[in-house]
Amino acid sequence: MTDNITIRKAPGKWSVRSGGAILGETTAALELLEGEKDPVIYFPRTDIAMAFLDRTDKVTQCAGKGEAAHFSIVNKSSVTENAVWSYEDPIPAVAELKDHLAFYPGDSVKVERL
Q1: Most exposed: 44, 86, 97, 106, by fewest CB within 10 Å?
Q2: pLDDT digits (tens, 9 = 90+) for 28-58
Q3: Is the pLDDT score of 110 beyond 90?
Q4: 78 forms bridges with which residues in the sheet?
Q5: Where does residue 13 fall: left (phi above 0), alpha (psi -120 to 50 degrees), or beta otherwise?
Q6: What region holds the DUF427 domain (predicted)?
Q7: Angle at Cα 43 formed by Cα 56 and Cα 12, nearest 5°?
Q8: Is 45 helix (H, G, I), strand (E, B) or coil?
Q9: Domain CATH for 83
Q10: Residue 104, Cα to own-chain centre: how many angstroms?
Q11: How many domains does the chain have?
Q12: CB 10 within 8 A of CB 29
């Protein structure tokens, strides 16, 4: 891994919800620690209701992780633009992020340990 990035199994069961809908729950989440930043929880795609996510054109680049694709959360009451990201082809140092999704927490998106 890169010098300031640590990835480990996140302890416990995790949930993500938006607009009153549970998007997913997992006991297989990963926790990414990067320097002084807040930890980020990554959910396996297989544990997320992908029908709620629409891929957008937004792409960002991180030197320590690679290129991130973004998704909006679409449910019957709202659309939360670019609320999700995924390193679909991460650099080798963080290869375990492949097939995982992370969510920008906010008023309409809640990531919680149950």
Answers
A1: 106
A2: 999 999 989 999 999 999 999 999 999 999 9
A3: yes
A4: 75
A5: beta
A6: 15-105
A7: 155
A8: helix
A9: 2.170.150.40
A10: 8
A11: 1
A12: yes
pLDDT in the model for residue 78: 86
pLDDT of 107 above 50 = yes
* Separation CA 44–CA 1 (nearest Å): 20
Q: Which domain holds residue 95?
A: 5-113
In whole angstroms, give the CA distance from residue 66 to residue 18.
27
CA 52 – CA 64 distance, rounded (Å)? 28
Residue 3 pLDDT > 80: no
Classify strands 30-34 and 21-26 as parallel, antiparallel or unpaired: unpaired
Q: Among candidates 4, 82, 68, which has minimal Cα distance to 36? A: 4
- Model pLDDT, residue 1: 44
pLDDT in tens, 53-90: 999 999 999 999 999 999 999 988 889 999 999 999 99
